[in-house]
């Protein structure tokens, strides 16, 4: 990438971060795709740690930490995608309750991000038992919102 195109890309990224949530997406479906994509990547890397936690993959400290880094980064991304007007009644999709109880939903998101930060800290101790404990708490924090805000 040239310096000029890098600067242009950075300017776009900076503008996106400071723009109101809805304005970051050209259409509502893009917001849905964005949040689903972020959660898909997060779940994939969380699952790689899960494989080590559950003994389906050998524990490797550096790999666990690298995956936890990705999970931590991804954990910050989905929520900007929960724009008004993107609720669904379909099973497994975002329920309208997100927007009627937004403060509770946001608190759940924050809880998950906090638990993910602890998982990353645990990964950095290079101790699988620490990772196991933190992994379980992250899982609970995912499930909490999925139970309440994803159509059953
Ligand atoms: C995952 C994943 C979730 C959570 C949840 C934990 O790996 O994709 O949504 O864990 O199932 O209960």
Task: Outline the structure in words.
The chain is mainly alpha-helical. The protein contains six helices and no strands. The chain is 70% helix and 0% strand. Helix 2 runs antiparallel to helix 6. The longest helix has 26 residues. The mean pLDDT is 92. The structure holds ascorbic acid (ASC). Ascorbic acid (ASC) binds next to helix 2 and helix 6.
Compute the number of helices: 6
- Radius of gyration (CA) equals 17 Å
Bound small molecules, by name, code or SMILES, are: ascorbic acid
Domain tally: 1
What share of residues are in beta strands?
under 5%
CATH superfamily: Cytochrome c/b562
Q: What class would the helix/strand composition place it in?
A: mainly alpha
Look at the structure and give the CATH class.
Answer: Mainly Alpha
Helicity, as a percent range:
55-70%
Look at the structure and give the mean pLDDT.
92
Shape: globular
Low-confidence stretches: none
N-to-C order of helices and strands: HHHHHH
Main sheet characteristics = none
CATH architectural group: Up-down Bundle
Quick overview of this protein structure:
With 152 residues, this protein is mainly α. The chain is built from 6 helices and no strands.
């Amino acid at each position: 990438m040239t310096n000029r195109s890098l600067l242009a890309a950075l300017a776009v990224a900076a503008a996106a971060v400071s723009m109101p949530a809805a304005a970051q997406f050209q259409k509502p479906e893009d917001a849905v795709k964005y949040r689903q994509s972020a959660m898909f990547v997060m779940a994939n890397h969380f699952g790689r740690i899960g494989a080590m936690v559950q003994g389906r993959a050998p524990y490797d400290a550096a790999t666990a930490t690298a995956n936890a880094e990705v999970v931590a980064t991804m954990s910050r991304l989905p929520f900007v995608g929960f724009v008004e007007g993107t609720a669904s009644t379909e099973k497994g999709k975002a329920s309208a309750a997100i927007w009627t109880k937004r403060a509770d939903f946001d608190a759940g998101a924050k809880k998950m991000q906090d638990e993910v930060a602890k998982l990353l800290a645990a990964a950095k101790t290079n101790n699988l038992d620490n990772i196991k404990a933190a992994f379980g708490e992250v899982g609970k924090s995912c499930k909490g919102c999925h139970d309440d805000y994803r159509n059953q």
